[in-house]
What we know:
Elements: E1 14-19, H1 27-43, E2 45-50, H2 52-59, H3 66-80, E3 88-91, H4 97-106, H5 111-115, H6 118-126, H7 135-138, H8 140-149, E4 155-157, H9 163-180, E5 188-190, H10 219-227, H11 248-256, H12 259-270, H13 276-302, H14 305-333
Parallel strand pairs: 1-2, 2-3, 4-5
Helix pairs in contact: 3-13, 4-8, 4-14, 8-9, 10-13, 11-13
This protein binds tryptophan and iron/sulfur cluster (SF4).
Residues 16-20, 51, 54, 144, 147-148, 156, 158, 162, 165 line the site of tryptophan.
Amino acid sequence: MRAPEGSSHEARKRVLSGFRPTGPMHIGHLVGALENWIRLQETHDCFFAICDWHALTSEYADTSSIKDYVLDMALDWLAAGLDPEKCTIFVQSHVPEHAELHLLLSMIVPVTWLERVPTYKEQQQQISNRDLTNYGFLGYPVLQAADILIYRAELVPVGEDQLAHLELCREIARRFNSLYGPVFPEPQALTTRVPRVPGTDGRKMSKSYGNALNLGDPIEETRERVLRMVTDPARKTRQDPGNPDICPVYDLHKAFSDRTTIDLVNVECRRAGIGCIDCKTYLLKHLEPVLRPIQERRSRLARERDRVREILAEGARRARAEATRTMESVRAAMKMDTRLPG
Ligand code: TRP
Ligand code: SF4
């Protein structure tokens, strides 16, 4: 059905990845994840989840925006080039089997494994405007393991920050298999080297810093924000030589510009041969052609929200078929299949 010529659908490795719908997707997500997913959909059997239950683990007190972010995320993914004919795009909560598997796995996961996950204590300390002592937040990696294992995914494209969760997922799979028999393959993380994409203030691009260039922002706004972006702070006037190695604009060049431009900036910045406005204009010449088609597709899709909902419904049907099959094996392995005769 979805197998293009030359590669049997059966032979394709299963991939699963996901994002939490807690805000708009930005160019860091494009370079760090989406571009990789778009390549993978050509060669792998891909499932991409909008993890709304994961969003709840920290946003439980104010859930009002999650719903909009879910649809926005679907728009961003489709606009960026995920093709529902080639991959399965779905919303986590549309496949309630994830919750069942999460519950069953929670029986075999020692609490100490969860308390040891580095992000757990870190996030509790860093995020001061929310109470993250809830049970669901501790169980976050168990739910993530359920997302992955329920599709028996072999590969999980994620950033470095997710490696601890992936390792825990593998440990959970091993523990399940040794207690009840082999059901789950141990998934591998798929990390690709991605360029650093700093925000407009030079810090890590993040919606909470207000420094993000979002895929859905109007091009004019992105243009202005790039032109006002932080540069090498020592380069005060056009005559001062600069140091691209400490300039966030140069990082964006490395992510979006061609080799010739990158080399030119590297040389000319250091000898004040170009000014920062020139430099940012070159960057925009490479960034805009990436963003414009995404924006065009995005605004077309935004006018057909029912079509997007239909894509998500179809994705949920495909995902559920797969999840249902795995849950049958899980219940049988755990001898919890009391609905069946025998
Ligand atoms: N924890 C991931 C993140 O914050 C999101 C996520 C949820 C995920 N479920 C997943 C990623 C399953 C990979 C596989 O980015
Ligand atoms: Fe940064 Fe470019 Fe200005 Fe150099 S010329 S400081 S790389 S913006």
